[in-house]
Design goal:
There is one protein chain. The relative contact order is 0.17. The longest helix is centred in the N-terminal third of the chain and has 17 residues, at 62-78. This protein has two domains: 9-168 and 329-386, Periplasmic binding protein-like II (D-Maltodextrin-Binding Protein, domain 2), CATH 3.40.190; 173-327 and 402-444, Periplasmic binding protein-like II (D-Maltodextrin-Binding Protein, domain 2), CATH 3.40.190. It contains 20 helices and twelve strands. The strands form four sheets. A five-stranded mixed sheet has the order 2-1-3-12-6, sandwiched between helices. A three-stranded antiparallel sheet has the order 10-7-11. Strands 4-5 form a two-stranded antiparallel sheet. The chain has helices spanning 9-15, 20-26, 62-78, 91-103, 119-126, 133-139, 148-153, 178-183, 195-205, 224-233, 251-266, 280-286, 302-305, 342-352, 355-364, 372-375, 378-381, 384-394, 407-423, 430-444; strands at residues 52-59, 82-89, 110-114, 155-156, 159-160, 163-168, 173-177, 207-209, 212-215, 291-294, 311-315, 329-335. The protein has 449 residues and is an alpha+beta fold.
Length: 449
């Protein structure tokens, strides 16, 4: 498996018993018993020639776990003085577990973190993650090996807090059911398609039987991340540059809200909350959706779709702002402040974030490493959809996070407050939008955690 050309992604999924359901269940699986290891805070530097144990705290995920299992023995063979011990925890418990271990002086040497939900900002605010600028310089590492937007996204107060482990361009992709489009007599979309063209295609793909919609033309993402990309498509930003102001009531974002509302309530091409048939990925797999907005990870549904229909991807349709919208999303591997073996820990971080690891993530299936030489790897580009992913990633737009790092609070509030719009129980009038703006601005005005 060290040579990715000998094992296709679909073959890997089959022999590893991977499935979409398995990927979802992995986040809820109970962690195995953590191996015993000395508390990181009490370790002394190992004498020359002795083995150094690096404790790696990871979020449970079937793709990531497969990579760790693959790369750990290779790394230790190449670095015989380092022993890597992985301790994994479910995603919903991960941040609390890291905070508890840090407070108790039992945190290890390397931790997984992410831009999503401002996880890495929270870890930074607690003092969990160490700046690695000196370690990068000592290793002679060229940060140009990663996408600049990914590096910038995990740099705070001038401190680089980790290396990009996985990255994607946000909700910048529309998946389309090519079989359904051809059956309806439509034309498959191209990279230069527009929002108006998408609406017409979605209308063509919306099918009703006896007053009941049996196929929906489009499932957009109406959450925070979907609004980020859509606001950009209309030429604006959901947040101002420093992340202190919520701009939903301003021109471009307001247009984006009305555009979404029309998809659900005017054109009736998108399923309302009451019309959702399980999870969005399940609807896509079952062929109920003609087009579907998602991230690069939706491609893992290929194994579940099988031969049911042919599918492909295209960038978000171009809006009045001249773009379809994108948003760098980054997972990182970080060296902890508690580590007494930062150089060895950094070697493991760098190994997990190198080209080989990034490519192997793609062969396993799902989001790949945040590097141009990964997105452009020949073995991955054998899949036509990854050619589209590369082009989008090469032109992705910079990330913006709430300045007080209460990103998750803001995103949850957005989902709750806007639900009546998509359900048809409210209108996107001035009073409604202002109430949403005030509620989320109140969250953004709170102090940092």
């Amino acid at each position: 498996m060290s040579n990715p050309k000998h094992l296709s992604r679909r073959d890997f999924l089959r022999v590893s018993s991977f499935s979409v359901a398995g990927l979802a269940l992995a986040a809820c699986a109970a962690p195995g018993a953590a191996p015993s290891a000395p508390a990181a805070g009490g370790e002394a530097a190992a004498p020359s020639g002795e083995k150094v144990t690096i404790r790696h705290h990871a979020r449970i995920g079937q793709q990531e776990d497969a990579l760790y299992e693959m790369q750990t023995p290779k790394f230790m063979e190449e670095n015989p003085n380092i022993v890597v011990v992985k301790e994994s925890f479910p995603g919903e418990e991960y941040e609390a577990k890291m905070a508890t271990m840090f407070a108790g002086g039992t945190q290890g040497d390397v931790i997984w973190s992410a831009l999503g939900g401002a996880k890495i900002q929270f870890a930074y605010s607690q003092g969990q993650v160490a700046a690695i600028d000196d370690l990068v310089a000592s290793a002679g590492l060229d940060l140009g090996e990663w996408y600049e937007g990914c590096i910038n996204a995990i740099t705070l107060d001038g401190n680089l807090l980790g290396l990009p482990f996985k990255a994607h361009p946000g909700l910048a992709v529309v998946y389309y059911n090519q079989t359904a489009i051809e059956a309806a007599g439509g034309e498959v979309p191209t990279a230069d398609w527009t929002q108006d063209q998408h609406i017409e295609l979605a209308k063509l793909l919306t099918v009703s039987d006896g007053g009941r919609t049996t196929q929906f033309g489009y499932l957009p993402n109406a959450g925070w991340k979907g609004m980020v990309t859509l606001s950009r498509a209309f030429g604006g930003e959901l947040l101002n540059e420093d992340g202190t102001v919520f701009q939903v009531a301003e021109g471009a974002s307001l247009q984006a809200v009305n555009y979404l509302y029309d998809l659900f309530q005017t054109h009736k091409v998108a399923p309302t909350p009451d019309q959702m048939l399980g999870a969005a990925n399940d609807m896509w797999i079952s062929g109920v959706l003609g087009t579907y907005q998602g991230g690069t990870s939706v491609a893992v549904t290929d194994s579940a779709i099988g031969d049911a229909f042919e599918w492909m991807v295209v960038p978000n349709p171009i809006g009045p702002g001249g773009v379809g919208g994108s948003d760098y999303e980054v997972d990182a591997q970080c060296v902890t402040t508690a580590s007494q073996h930062k150089e060895e820990a950094f070697k493991w971080v760098n190994y997990l974030c190198n080209q080989d690891s990034g490519i192997q993530l793609g062969i396993i299936g799902g989001t790949v490493g945040g590097r141009p030489d990964v997105y452009g790897a020949e073995v991955l580009l054998e899949h036509p959809y990854r050619v589209v992913f590369k082009d989008i990633m090469d032109h992705a737009m910079a990330s913006r996070i709430t300045n007080n790092w209460r990103q998750t609070e803001a995103e949850v509030a957005w989902d709750q407050l806007t639900q009546p719009l998509w359900a048809g129980n409210a209108q996107p009038d001035e009073a409604f939008i202002e109430s949403v703006r005030v509620a989320i601005q109140d969250i953004m005005d709170k102090p940092r955690p």
